[in-house]
Design brief:
heterodimer, A: alpha+beta, Jelly Rolls, Serine Threonine Protein Phosphatase 5, Tetratricopeptide repeat, 3 domains, 13-stranded mixed β-sheet, 13 helices, 13 strands, B: mainly alpha, Rna Polymerase Sigma Factor, Chain: A, Arc Repressor Mutant, subunit A, 2 domains, about 65% helix
Chain lengths: ~450, ~210
């Protein structure tokens, strides 16, 4: 009696048979999964090590100081059992299904969150609350101006998307305006600190209190200047130009057509505007390269979808399409992975990646209900195009199992024999021996 | 914190085969010292094992890949707490099972909600039931077991672990493992009686013990 048989001794015969089938049909990690898992594990390891490095300074504190900090956090911070998503409500309006909100033309509603954070919407502003958790929320501003006050607290994490820009904050007060038709972003930071990521700069732009960032996409211009923050944060500009800067003095001298300076009682003299960058070269390559080297799947998906997926699929190179397919598959976005692989085959026919894409497409469609037949066609295509490719053994193994499922063990037998001849120690050898009747 | 093993170059990344040449103690030490070769070697040595348990426990390759990554993140964080580096394999298995239980419990809640929407599992067609469908249906039966009973059943009956090994991995006594296994066996036998289509798939299987 084999150990496997021994482990199923005394079991109902039908259950034992199913347990045996489960042992045969599950648990084998393919080479592709192994390689993908290694990449992801290494990215995880780096993030764990990075987190440990950030914690290092705490170890330098004495026990007394550490205790004091723990007590302070205990008394003022969120309790462990309070890890519940924030709740929110909207005055003068209602957040629609899917998190969509819009400020009517005559109103200035407020989104009030349970941690005290508030977002005031200027008339006409609209957007969406994409996600809320215990740390904060992900808010997308589709159009218009908002004034935001994020209550500072440990672990707070808030993200505001405005067009292609991402503003990340912890605890701060700022005004954010996005005019989609002009491609113009304005961020005025009153308190705290925030960072802005987006096109025209491959580095995050970090703002300090009293700084005003303006980005105009069409002109490829980025400006940072000072504004008077001694007064409460108000809506910017007049009705005709809600995003116009309220700073006085040298700002008015900026060569900014359409940016009408609005006189404001400046209690402290603003420094001259700093033109951070004009006509910055677009450097998406650096972003892709960094995301690639860090195995940061989310960032790769973000980079691919930010300018529009169709554009990415039409413009990115073969390597990035392969990377996008990997990232999307790993993040369970097989819809995107499939498009990336199809683009790979369409745009780079005859290349190794295009041939590999046939196999990977097979894996994706095989997982769909009723997709086994289509998967079989992709595996056959890959086997014909790449008889000695990196995925050939995998493709033959998958073909074997799909055939067995679709047409029974008899149909799978010749493929099983071929598999055993070519890959006697392969991942599917055990299954192949069963189908070939060679225990 | 142990000092790094100077006999191993920092950029040494072992393959699935030569990872075996590194001792468990050196692996633990390397990870504690944040050396990437050690993380790669840990994956090379235990990635397949963790995935196997995850896939057999969950019955879903997608979820198994996710769970495997969760387990490795846990291992990278917690491996420094391992008192006896020679017990690395047991440690890896126990972390895997802890994560598996947690995921099954979470999934059970979701599944309960799903099942109340659709009533019972849909009947499979009398013809054309294949291995993949049979396995799918078998795992849906496992979903009806208590999570702890299911884990014991999978480790023993599917993965073929010895009873003592199951006890060590799950943290139960041997008697508890036997009791849970007995309960899972009986429940599955009972559930199979309501699965004539699945029974028909098993060629030549009667109901004899």
């Amino acid at each position: 009696m084999t150990p496997d048989e021994e482990s199923r001794q005394g079991l109902d015969a039908s259950v034992a048979k199913l347990a045996e089938l489960a042992a045969l049909g599950t648990g084998e990690m393919s080479d592709v999964q192994h390689a993908r898992g290694l990449r992801a594990a290494m990215a995880g390891f780096r993030s764990v090590c990075g987190g440990a490095k950030r914690r290092l300074p705490w170890r330098l504190l004495g026990v007394g100081a550490a205790t004091a900090v723990v007590l302070a956090v205990w008394l003022t911070g969120p309790r462990p059992w309070q890890h519940r998503p924030l709740t929110f409500a909207m005055t003068e309006g209602e957040v629609q299904a899917g998190g969509y909100f819009r400020a009517a033309s005559e109103s200035q509603p407020r989104l009030q969150f349970s941690d005290g954070t508030r977002i005031d919407l200027r008339a006409g502003a609209r957007g969406r609350i994409a996600a809320v958790d215990e740390s904060g929320a992900h808010v997308m501003i589709d159009e218009g101006e908002t004034r935001v006050r994020v209550v500072p607290r440990a672990g707070a994490r808030w993200q505001f998307d405005a067009g292609p820009f991402v503003v990340r904050v912890q605890g701060t007060e700022f005004a954010l305006a996005w005019r989609g038709d002009e491609g113009r972003l304005d961020v005025r930071l009153h308190e705290g600190a925030l960072s802005v990521n987006g096109p025209l700069s491959d580095q995050a732009i970090v703002l300090h209190p009293g700084q005003w960032l303006t980005v105009r996409l069409a002109a490829r211009e980025v400006f940072v200047r000072d504004f008077d923050r001694s007064a409460p944060l108000t809506w910017s500009g007049g009705d005709t130009d809600p995003a116009a800067p309220a700073a006085a003095g040298p700002v008015a001298a900026l060569p900014e057509p359409g940016l009408a300076p609005v006189p404001a009682p400046a209690k402290e003299r603003p420094r001259p505007a700093a033109r951070v960058a004009t006509a910055l070269p677009e450097k998406p390559e650096a972003n892709w390269a960094r995301a690639r080297s860090e195995g940061d799947w989310e960032r790769i998906l973000d980079l691919a979808t930010r300018p529009g997926l169709e554009r990415t699929l039409a413009e990115r190179g073969s390597e990035d399409l392969a990377l996008l397919a990997d990232a999307a598959h790993y993040r369970h976005r097989d819809d995107i992975a499939e498009q990336a692989l199809l683009a790979q085959r369409r745009r780079f026919p005859g290349t190794t990646r295009a041939k590999d894409a046939a196999f990977l497409l097979g894996r994706i469609v095989e997982a769909k209900p009723g997709g086994a037949g289509e998967a079989l066609a992709w595996y056959d295509r890959h086997l014909a195009e790449a008889p000695d490719g990196a995925y050939t053994s995998e493709a033959l193994g998958r073909k074997l199992t799909v055939l067995a499922r679709l047409r029974g063990h008899e149909a799978a037998r010749p493929i099983a024999q071929e598999y055993l001849e070519r890959y006697p120690g392969g991942s599917y050898a055990r299954a192949a021996r069963v189908f070939a009747g060679k225990p | 914190m142990p000092a790094p093993d100077s006999s191993l170059p920092i950029d040494f990344v072992p393959s699935r085969h030569d990872a075996a040449a590194v001792s468990d103690a050196a692996l633990v030490q390397g990870i504690a010292c944040k050396q990437e070769w050690a993380a790669a070697a840990l994956w090379a040595r235990f990635g397949t094992l963790v995935y196997r348990i995850a896939d057999r426990g969950l019955g879903s390759p997608h979820e198994a890949e996710d769970l495997t990554q969760d387990v490795f993140l846990c291992l990278f964080r917690k491996i420094g707490t391992l008192r006896d580096p020679n017990a690395l394999r047991s440690f890896v298995v126990s972390v895997t099972i802890r994560n598996l239980r947690w995921r099954l419990r979470r999934r059970r809640v979701r599944q309960w909600i799903h099942l109340t929407e659709t009533g019972e599992l849909p009947e499979l067609p009398a013809r054309g039931v294949d291995l993949g469908q049979a396995l799918h249906r078998f795992y849906r039966l496992l979903d009806k077991l208590r999570v702890d009973d299911r884990v014991v059943f999978v480790l023993r009956r599917v993965d073929g672990m010895a009873l003592k090994e199951v006890a060590r991995a799950t943290g139960y006594s041997l008697a508890t493992v036997k009791r849970r296994l007995c309960r899972a066996d009986a429940a599955l036998s009972r559930l199979m009686e309501g699965e004539p289509v699945l029974m028909a798939f098993l060629p030549g299987e009667g109901r004899e013990r």
